[in-house]
């Protein structure tokens, strides 16, 4: 029993000596998960013993190791070339006693700013409280900011939920009522995780959040002909449209595309029977007002 304990004790002492004497490696820079917007990466390495330091770029076809430092404890090397995209390297140290230890490091190099940026609404367009959209190409997106306003006030809206990838579209829902009747400018700022920044072009749009004003409405029936007469107050008038809900496949059709001194006078033929119609008036900012809802017209 005493002999067994002695052997255990001797084994423990030998193991402890070997463990204490083993070389260790500390990688300060780059750490796993690092992101760089440049390809010349610095390495800050530390060994517990005087050692040679090597780097193996695992995703290169050669898989050959290059020496970074020779016969040293602290190895600081600048401008080690890395490739665009994901990098995986192995750092290996060999001490003077022949002890070897290695560590794998993954990091990302992204030198390319967001590209292919376009936005809507278009320059010069009339808008209401609508969606601002940006289209872009960026595989490592961090966030997008929408800036909008006039010379006195620029608002901003940030989204960190937009998707990475090519031909992505991100929508921003805004309230521009405070700018109604004014021309505002807007643009998008796109940032990736490597802090590469790109902006969309600045566009000017006219804000109109007021719906058209229906001053009067009437219609008369003569046979199969229905004559409509509407008086509309709207500077940015776009159209008046009608839908016959009694049709087999109800569709919106255009009654008027312009006003004459504020008037839309239009005659339309209907088949015999009962017709349930809706009529709306729109402006160019897509604000609308209902002229008729479920209006019953009987043709006999």
Describe the protein:
With 300 residues, the chain is mainly beta. The protein has 3 domains: 2-109, Immunoglobulin-like; 115-207, Immunoglobulin-like; 213-299, Sandwich (Immunoglobulin-like), CATH 2.60.40. Helices cover 7% and strands 61% of the residues. The chain is built from 1 helix and 22 strands. It has one helix spanning 2-21, and strands spanning 25-29, 34-36, 40-57, 65-81, 85-95, 100-109, 115-120, 126-127, 131-138, 141-149, 154-159, 165-173, 183-192, 197-199, 203-207, 213-222, 225-233, 237-244, 252-256, 263-269, 273-283, 288-299. The relative contact order is 0.11.
Q: What fraction of the residues are assigned to beta strands by DSSP?
A: over 45%
The CATH architecture of the largest domain is Sandwich
Low-confidence stretches: 1-21
Alpha carbon gyration radius: 36 Å
* Count of extended strands: 22
- The percentage helix is under 10%
Order of helices and strands: HEEEEEEEEEEEEEEEEEEEEEE
**CATH domain topology of the largest domain:** Immunoglobulin-like
**CATH superfamily descriptor of the largest domain:** Immunoglobulins
Global shape: rod-shaped
Total tally of structural domains: 3
User: Can you identify the CATH class of the largest domain?
Assistant: Mainly Beta
Mean pLDDT: 91
List the helices and strands and how they pair.
Elements: H1 2-21, E1 25-29, E2 34-36, E3 40-57, E4 65-81, E5 85-95, E6 100-109, E7 115-120, E8 126-127, E9 131-138, E10 141-149, E11 154-159, E12 165-173, E13 183-192, E14 197-199, E15 203-207, E16 213-222, E17 225-233, E18 237-244, E19 252-256, E20 263-269, E21 273-283, E22 288-299
Parallel strand pairs: 2-6, 8-15
Antiparallel strand pairs: 1-3, 3-4, 3-5, 5-6, 7-9, 9-12, 10-11, 10-13, 13-14, 13-15, 16-17, 17-20, 18-19, 18-21, 21-22
